[in-house]
Write a structure and sequence with these properties.
Helix 8 crosses helix 9. This protein has 220 residues and is mainly alpha-helical. The longest helix has 18 residues. Helix content is 57%, strand content 0%. The chain starts with 16 loop residues before the first helix and ends in a 6-residue tail after the last helix.
């Protein structure tokens, strides 16, 4: 199985002048966040990310419920089994799961990795077509894989496909930031979060970057 080619490479979100201006006008809170965190968000957007869809999904599964440092360490150990590279789907399906287990992955994560590999190998997850598909179809393809839920699909669309209008209603950080910045008494549920975010459309992805950035200064 060949490695995913250029068609599945990352397309980063851009803080275009049009998008930034629209968020400044969306509501007073977002206008303040843009003013306070524009430099940090622009710097974060320049961070290197996995260049192919398959690699991004592998890292996502490995990193579930782990700190960034732990996830990086375990992912590195796993790739050592494959000469320092991410395994192709065929290689992942062929290797003894116990060898991957020795790298520090749980059996459940190994089953998720193998399910991802099987979907790619059999063609039910069409990596090359993901950039062309609408958001709901990308979500449907990804969440058909064990261990990949709506949150993972949202993160993939935001940071790999560069979709400009994604609102991850299940992300605790976004909910917490909205609670603090919009002075809500409790964490907003998905319905209230969607309502609050209406003025940010069609740039809700960028709005979320400003909200995540604001958490650095939020009270515990």
């Amino acid at each position: 199985m060949p490695r995913p080619s250029a068609g599945s490479r990352t397309t980063p979100v851009k803080a275009s002048p049009t998008a930034v201006a629209a968020l400044r006008e969306a509501d007073p809170v977002m206008a303040r966040l843009v003013e306070e965190h524009a430099a940090v968000v622009r710097r974060d957007l320049k961070r290197e990310r996995p260049r192919d869809a398959y690699g991004a999904l592998l890292r996502s599964i490995v990193g579930q419920q782990l700190s960034t440092k732990a996830a990086r360490t375990i992912y590195g150990r796993m790739t050592e089994l494959f000469d320092g590279h991410a395994p192709t789907p065929r290689q992942l399906l062929a290797v003894d799961p116990e060898r991957i287990r020795a790298a520090g992955l749980s059996y459940s994560k190994i089953s998720y990795l193998r399910d991802l590999a099987a979907h790619v190998e059999e063609g039910s997850l069409e990596l090359e077509r993901l950039p062309e598909l609408p958001d709901d179809e990308v979500t449907a393809q990804l969440t058909a894989i064990k261990g990949l839920g709506q949150w993972t699909a949202d993160m993939f669309m935001m940071f790999h496909l560069g979709r400009p209008d994604i609102l991850p209603v299940g992300d605790l950080g976004i909910r917490r930031a909205v609670q603090v910045e919009y002075r809500m008494r409790k964490l907003p549920d998905p319905k209230r979060l969607e309502k609050t975010a209406r003025p940010w459309r069609p740039y809700r992805t960028l709005a979320c970057l400003f909200l995540w950035s604001s958490l650095d200064n939020a009270p515990a």
